[in-house]
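Incident review: delayed structure delivery

Summary: a single-chain prediction request sat in the queue longer than the usual turnaround. Root cause was a stuck worker, restarted by the on-call engineer. No data loss occurred. The affected request and its eventual output are reproduced below so the record is complete for anyone auditing the incident later.

Affected input:
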Amino acid sequence: MILRPYSNAGVLIYCIAMNDLNDDEKKALKAFRKRLKMNQMEDDSRLGHGPLTGAKSTIVAIRPPAGFGATVWEALADKGYLKRDSGGFYELVPGK
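Output delivered after worker restart:
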């Protein structure tokens, strides 16, 4: 993992470079983030949620999208980008 500094409005911020991922893992992680966001937005738009309550989605773990093998998801979990949950679900690690 490589930390690269960059400045944003005078504040020095370190971002994590994804140099330790190959192309398949980068695509899989992007698909995972997109699917997680889509599921959260779908949950937020249901009729049971009141728009004034400010309640956000409680979805934090999902089954990984199809199209990538189990070895890709296991590799992402081993590298610390995803966290294994029970029943084949994975959770996105904050800050990655």
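Verification: The radius of gyration is 16 Å.
Action items: add queue-age alerting; document worker restart procedure.
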